[in-house]
Specification:
single chain; mainly alpha
Length: 222
């Protein structure tokens, strides 16, 4: 009897396969059965590793974080504004590599500590810039939440990375909102030129963090 060589099935391999398949199916179409077919195994084999789809999403998000950490998160710039801006740009770029990537990433629980070193490094930059520990955590989470939310909306609009266009028919939208001219005109800002829009919003977030969370310097003597 000839034995057929097989590749070991583990959580990381399943998560990487799921991320590849995600670009074809989207989050709604991603099922354990479809992943099993891609891996050429029976669906019950996956339940040894993942009790349900949420457990799989947790591992997929963790794999995405591992890739982010390898590329840009582990050595932040000494200037907290540059470090935070660069990290959020990189996060958006990674999320956009996968269809519904931001939805996969949002609300999941990491399955290992791959996020810890990058987070520690960024919090240290903020702390060394004078942020109190709680303010540093709030600064990081605020920028993170903005980025995740922006990309969820960006991907929901059907926009591709760098395309500058969304999936909305803005002419039809403006016609529906003819009695609301400001709301109608807002469509161009919200659903076009996503790269520019992200940068403008991120700059506002970083400026707000500096104005409200950074520890003020000593008062000037008069």
């Amino acid at each position: 009897m000839v034995k057929v060589a097989t590749t070991k099935l583990d959580r990381t391999r399943v998560a990487r396969t799921a991320l590849d398949l995600l670009n074809e199916t989207g989050l709604e179409g991603l099922t354990l059965r479809a992943i099993a077919q891609r891996l050429d195994v029976k669906a019950p084999a996956l339940y040894w590793h993942f009790k349900d789809k949420q457990a799989l999403l947790d591992e997929m998000a963790t794999e995405m974080m591992r890739r982010m950490g390898e590329e840009f998160l582990s050595a932040p710039d000494a200037d907290w504004r540059v470090a935070l801006t660069t990290a959020m740009r990189g996060m958006r770029e990674h999320l956009l590599r996968h269809r519904d990537g931001a939805k996969v990433f949002s609300g999941t629980h990491y399955t290992d500590l791959s996020y810890a070193a990058p987070m520690e490094a960024h919090l240290r930059v903020l702390a060394e810039a004078g942020f109190a520990p709680g303010a540093a955590a709030r600064a990081w989470f605020t920028a993170y939440s903005y980025t995740i939310g922006y990309v969820i909306e960006e991907q929901a609009s059907g926009a591709g990375h760098g395309s500058g266009d969304g999936g909305y028919d803005l002419a039809a939208r403006a016609e529906r909102l003819a009695d609301y001219p400001l709301a109608a005109a807002a469509g161009e800002e919200m659903f076009r030129a996503h790269d520019r829009g992200f940068e403008a919003g991120l700059a506002a977030v970083v400026a707000g963090i500096g104005a409200t969370l950074a520890t003020p310097g000593p008062a000037a003597s008069g």
